[in-house]
Each structure stands twice: as structure tokens, then as C-alpha cells.
Amino acid sequence: MKLQVTGVSCAFEGATILEKMDMAVAEGEFVSILGPSGCGKSTLLNIIAGLLPAGGGQVFVDGQVTTGISGHFAYMPQQDLLFPWKTILDNVCLYGKINGNLRQAKEQALASMEKFGLAGYEHQYPDQLSGGMRQRAAFLRTALCQADILLLDEPFGALDVISRGDMQDWLAAIRKELGRTILLVTHDIDEAIYLSDRVLVLSGRPASVKRELVISAKERNKEWLFQQHDLRQEIYHILKEE
Ligand SMILES: Nc1ncnc2c1ncn2[C@@H]1O[C@H](COP(=O)(O)OP(=O)(O)OP(=O)(O)O)[C@@H](O)[C@H]1O
């Protein structure tokens, strides 16, 4: 397994949020996490990313225990967190600048602008772009990290329904090229079905994996997604029971 979480627990001020959570993601797999509001999804991503210490349990990458911040993860939060005073190019090269390889980061960024729908906007500022474009810029910044696992926390949550649908199509199309292992937290059942190889449905607090659903489809498109009534209903009922 690329990523393995074993027996991870976490409590805040005496309230148990995660209790002996176990989950795993295979190399190159796209796994989505759905769960009731406030059950601890972001907390789990924060622990995996090493931003928050676990109260127990361990996180393994390629079979090795990881603690604290490691180069394995690139984390994209819900807000795009672009610096308004920096151009799109400078924003997406942020990690390259921090790591001292700005030149290489700029080359990679410029080569990727087209693929990320940002060609021609390199020297514009974030407030000159649409919400979807800003999310793509934030996504490019995440993708330019050398990290092999992308942690995406509701990356399209702030977008209107049309932009969100477009971003889902875009991510579905670009996923193979990215060639990364992806863990996505979402509130959107359709988003999880559309994008994932596997969906993990968490229980209410303390959260654990309540159900795991493998989504297998040769080819996916919006028509295919509309036909997934049974799957949608199944996930909805699991979430509603919580
Ligand atoms: N640093 C913290 N200190 C205290 N409590 C916290 C902290 N971080 C999160 N919590 C609490 O832990 C619980 C789980 O939060 P978390 O953000 O992980 O849930 P979530 O499932 O991602 O929520 P949502 O679905 O609303 O995005 C919440 O009740 C939250 O208030």
C-alpha cells in the first residue's frame, strides 16, 4: 500500500474525534472520503499530512512510518490561499521558491499552464481570474510539489455548481497524467462517485470507516454518473443513518 493509516486516534479537549481509524490507499489510487459534517475528515487529513500529531496510531508511506511534515504529501485546502499580490506564475511556483529551485518550478509551471487552463494568465493576479481558474492555479501549485500523494480537502467546495462540475471533468481528465495517489475529502456524493476508484464513508464521531465502496467503470462521463442511482442512494442512506 502507498498510504496506510493504522489505529489513528485524536481527541480535542476530551472529545474523541477519531477512534482507531484504519484505512489504506494503493499506489496511483483515487480514494474519496465522505462523512457527516464535523466527523473529523479534515482532522484526518491534517494528521496524515503531519500538520497535527495523532493521539495514537501510525501513518505509513511505502511501508515506512512518517511523523511530522514529510515530502510525501501535497495538501490543498478548501480555500485557494493564493497570495493576491503575487502573479499566478509566482503563486504556483511558491514551493519551488521555498525549496530553492525556482527556475525549474517556473519551467514546469509554464509547461503546465495550458493543461491547467491557465495559458495567457501567467502574469495576471488572482482577483482577475474566475473562482474555477483560481482553484486550478491552487491545484497546479499543489501538483508542482514533488510529493507523491495529493491530499485534497474539499478543493471545489467554494465553487458554484457549474464551475464545480467543470472542475470535476477537468480533474477526471487530467488524473492519469498527474500519476499521483490522491485522497479527496468531499461532501458531494456525486463528486466522490465520479472521480474515485474507491469511496470510504465515515461514521459520525468518533469517526471510523463505516463502509467502503469500490467504483468500477470502464469509462465515466456525466451520463454514466446520472445513472448511478443505486450507488448514490446507498451512500446517502449510510450517511443519513449517522
Ligand atoms: N484544533 C482544534 N481544536 C479543537 N477542536 C477542533 C480542532 N480542529 C477540529 N476540531 C473539532 O473537531 C471536530 C472535527 O473537525 P473536522 O474539521 O476534522 O471535521 P470535518 O469532518 O472535516 O468537518 P466538515 O464536514 O464540517 O468539514 C469538529 O467538532 C471541530 O470543531
TrEMBL record:
SUPFAM superfamilies the record matches: P-loop containing nucleoside triphosphate hydrolases
Top-rank lineage group of the source organism: Bacteria
Keywords, alphabetical: ATP-binding, Nucleotide-binding, Transport
Pfam families, sorted: ABC_tran (PF00005)
Cross-referenced InterPro entries: AAA+_ATPase, ABC_transporter-like_ATP-bd, ABC_transporter-like_CS, ABC_transporter_ATP-bind, P-loop_NTPase
Location of the ABC transporter domain: 3-229
Keyword Nucleotide-binding: yes
Single GO term (MF): ATP binding
Entries under PROSITE patterns matching the protein: ABC_TRANSPORTER_1, ABC_TRANSPORTER_2
Protein name, UniProt field: ABC transporter ATP-binding protein
The keyword Nucleotide-binding appears for this protein: yes
Coiled-coil annotated residue ranges, if any: none
